Request: fold
Amino acid sequence: MKSSSIQTPIPTQIIPSVPCVSRSSSQIAREFHALLESGARFHAAGRARRNPRRLLAAGYSPKHRLDLFGTRIYLSNVRQNPELRFYVAYVLPPRSARARTDIYARIFYKDLSLVWRTASHMAYDHDGSLWIGKGDVRRVLQNGYEIVESVESTTDLPFEIQDALEDRLKALRRVPPDGSVLELVLRRSPADRIAPYDDFARPRRIAAASPRNRINGGRSIARFRRKTDPTSHEFVDGFEPDFTRGILEVKAARSRLYGGKLRRFRILSRNRLIQFVFIAGPEQVWIIPPQATTTELSSYGVRTIDVVADDDLFVSGWEYHYLDTELDPPEIYSQIPDGYAGRPCPADPNKADASPWLDQIPVIRAFRRKVLGQRRR
Reply:
């Protein structure tokens, strides 16, 4: 057995965003059913695990298809429940010549940060509200206590398919309501479980076992020299975005939360090992957590290798900031660094403008100047 130190590293590839395959919905559905009839194994982690075909009988037949790095992804039409908009997705990882075809039912949903993600599992909080699993976890010290928190970016779907997922949503005049399918597809965990199950975490452990796969050796590619000072941010040499020759794509988008038109810029790092998405709205600019340019995807449709960086670089334009009255005494809950919350969000009273923090970060200043042609804010 080969040791992890000499394993072949995961290949990298830089490609444009991929569109959906140009076939009709009926052709896509027939193709999918042919896979099942030819012996493909069909898997669901939720209540449909004993009979995943009930998803098809219930109206979640695939209508669209995406191909990325040898992984095939089938998508139902978009659905909506009170908490999120989502696709039922069917992921077919690449297979070896000897292996049978496996198909995994997953949920792809749009997060409030405007990024499409995969759900690792689900739970109901003690008050009955739905919680969607946010992928892998890490242990951190907070106020002298060790806590477990989700690393939400581990569920971000590849940048290369984000536009296609958004385009399919925009093509619909109406998004049908749906309140039942999540439990059929997703494994339901106890209310106090944050960590994903092994089918999500294991491919990541295997990929990271080889030092040759780890971005910057598994260390952070960006940090704040002084934690509470946005001007102190710096990148490890080579990992900064290349605003001169690294802009791959610019995509128009819209968001009522952000006041209308947005632009999404997909940008490579100078060393081409990672890629960023910058989002520019009418007022705010923010950065989505970067991704590797590796080509291996897990059965959840996400990369098995991630990029470590300080979370405070990736605060969204409007971010949670409100008085939590369920605590005694009430306390401010905020995902904006202390002292930098701006005006309240007109569309959501639980959010505030993060621009006072974001617009002092050097890389966002450089983006505004070099890419957007804006003067100093």
Remarks:
- Residues 216-370 form one domain.
- The two ends are 57 Å apart (CA to CA).
- The helical segments are 25-37, 54-57, 159-170, 181-185, 198-208, 355-358, 362-370.
- The chain has two domains: 10-196, 216-370.
